[in-house]
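Reopening this ticket.

The earlier resolution said the output was attached, but the attachment link was broken on my side. Pasting everything inline this time so it's all in one place.
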Amino acid sequence: MDKKIVAYLKKNNVLTIATAINNQPYCANCYYVFDELNFQFIFLSDESTRHITEALENNKIAGTVTTDNKSIAKIQGVQFVGEFIVPDEVEQAVFYEVYYAKYPFARAKPSKIWVIKLSFIKMTDNTLGFGKKLRWER
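Inline output:
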């Protein structure tokens, strides 16, 4: 994965996860940690939420990470596709440590931890030139 994509994903905090069941799309925002060694997002969310319920039924996920910028020359953002994963107990313990290290406030409202294993990323980065695209595929 291009180091510019990794740096961008590590410095940002919120992703939009998109799900679909019975041709009905839905999306939600979640705080995440980017695992650059395994190319995956780690995030918390309640099991009863619509996006988690749908991801458990259809594990094909799409989403975005973006930053608010008023200058077109500074626009950056990522579109991604991946697989929704339910981590096992050993993975959960590790992922909770990583997540709480970045977001200690999240301990105030315990939730289940989830993973999106990335399969494709397209990053638009106008700081590298107008309309510059960086792509990565597993």
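Reporter confirms the inline version is readable. The two ends are 9 Å apart (CA to CA). The chain has one domain: 3-137.
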